[in-house]
Structure formats: C-alpha cells, structure tokens
C-alpha cells in the first residue's frame, strides 16, 4: 500500500469536490520558485545516459567526495535495506515514513524512538536532518559520535538531508574530517535530493554519498541507467548554478519568516521550521486542515502528532489566499 505524501491533490479534489486547478497546494515542502530549467538539448532524448558532469557539479554544490546518482533519494531508501541481513533499525517516531516502511518491508526490526537520544542497541540509525515534518536539527557533533559508535560494530548511520540545501552549513558534509575528504568513512551514508530546494521533484534525481564499496553494491542492485539523460543534464546545470543557489537561500529565508509571521498572526505559532515549511502543533489541527481544504488550500496533516505542515505560497495571490483562508478559519472558530 502506498504511504500518504504531500501533493496528493487528486485525493483532495475527489474528497472535497474541487477541481485540481482551483487548489493552493502547500502540502509538499517543495520550493515554489524552482530552478528555471532551460531548453533541454534534443539529442539527450535519443541516447542512453552517458558519463557527464553531474558528479563534478554535485561535488561542487554538495561537498560529496564520492557518490552515486539515483532516481531520487527514494530509490536509495527502498534499496538500502536489501544490502543488510536482518537487523535492528532505529528511527524517529515522527519523520519521513518511507524509511521505516522500506526496512520493515525487508523483514528488519524497526525501533521507533523520540527525544534527544536514539537507542544504543541498534545496527542501523536513520536520521532525517533537518527532520521532516518537524524541522528539528541534530548537532553535527552528535551525528559524528553516533556514527563512531555504529561503525565500530559494523553498523550504519544513514542521514537523509533532503531539506539541507537551504542551510548547507548545517550539513554533515560541510566540515568533513580530513580522513573523509576523498571518500566518506565506512558506516556513513548521506542522502541528498534535487527535489526540495531546487523545486525539481519531477526530475527524480538524488545523490547517495558513502564508502566506494557500498556504493558499488547499491549500484549493482539499482542496475544500469537509473537516471535519464535529460534529468542528469538538468541536475548538472542546477547544481552548477551557485549564483542562483545563494540568491534562493536568501529568498527562502525571508519567505519562511514571512510564513511564520502570517501563521502567528492567526494564533498558530510554529513549533519548528525549515526554509521551505513551517510546522504547527495544535489540538485543532484536523479541524484547521479541513476548514482550509474547504477553501481549496491543501496542507499536510499529521493526525498522530496533531500537526500541520505549511509549505510556502508561490506568489502574492497565493499569499493573499492563505491570509484570507486563515482569517475565515479564525472567524469561524
């Protein structure tokens, strides 16, 4: 069974009886100001993916010393559990659900945890940093400590940095130890994605950083040509565009603060955030989600946490629509 994700507008349109084109979708956490894709060279459609500049561009933009291009980080999330015998996997009880589902699907034991300290009796520890949907961050010194403990007994630390591009200084790749400049150390796996910050989720491009031997095993399982030639070309161009990236980081920082201020204006103080979304916890979360949906504003509701994730509006009419929607909800409460 498919897990629920943001962007499921087909469900929203059917359930609330509103056509797709009449929705404001704030459910995904994807940058609404995506990198402007230029015309794709037509010859890329006529040939299989070749060696290109994608790795050089990713190394420049992300700091990955050695990596594998995959069809979105989702491809790695689903495949990594196949590379281990049955083991114990630790993961936060409130985070991106595909990780736990993929390990469970392969027969592993998943240990859910909350709080500041993960279980110390697991073989695999999965950290989404910053976390989705709460926006919480794990300090780099904690990550390195956990990695050392796991690697010493043959374990893995998997760090999913899908939302990290807006704040690269918080990345585990930002200040790699000297020994890791050529390749990541054994037992450390880092996932990056083109989808969120660059607003290119449809290209389905991700990067996996790990020790070379592990990347070879992962590549064998994924098979040849996992990412299309046009998508590889787009990723190379986007990762090379450092001027756009720096400008977008500043823009998203301002807009995230604007979203926080907007929500606070209507009594919804966020408990966490990234540059791409705000996280609100409220006992009225379900009611708020549904009342906004009746106005054609689609958010991501997390029932078990009484939480709602709000993505960024893409333009001034969208901001006004969100303001009007929140004002109406406030009047009806």
How many domains, in number, for the residues? 2
Contiguous low-pLDDT stretches (5 residues minimum) are: none
- Computed over alpha carbons, the radius of gyration is 20 Å
Shape: globular
How confident overall, as mean pLDDT?
A: 93
Number of helices: 10
Q: Specify the CATH architecture of the largest domain.
A: 3-Layer(aba) Sandwich
**Structural class of the secondary elements?**
alpha/beta
Give the tally of β-strands.
Answer: 13
The succession of helices and strands, N to C, reads: HEHEHEHEEHEEEHHHEEHEEEH
Percent helix, as a range, is 25-40%
CATH T-level topology of the largest domain: Aspartate Aminotransferase, domain 2
The strand line-up of the biggest sheet is 2-8-7-6-5-3-4
CATH superfamily of the largest domain: Type I PLP-dependent aspartate aminotransferase-like (Major domain)
Which percent range describes the beta-strand content?
15-25%
SSE blueprint and pairings:
Elements: H1 9-16, E1 24-25, H2 54-62, E2 67-70, H3 73-79, E3 88-92, H4 97-105, E4 109-113, E5 124-128, H5 140-151, E6 156-160, E7 188-193, E8 206-209, H6 212-222, H7 229-240, H8 242-265, E9 272-273, E10 277-281, H9 285-293, E11 297-298, E12 300-302, E13 307-311, H10 316-332
Parallel strand pairs: 1-11, 3-4, 3-5, 5-6, 6-7
Antiparallel strand pairs: 2-8, 7-8, 9-10, 10-13, 12-13
Helix pairs in contact: 2-7, 3-4
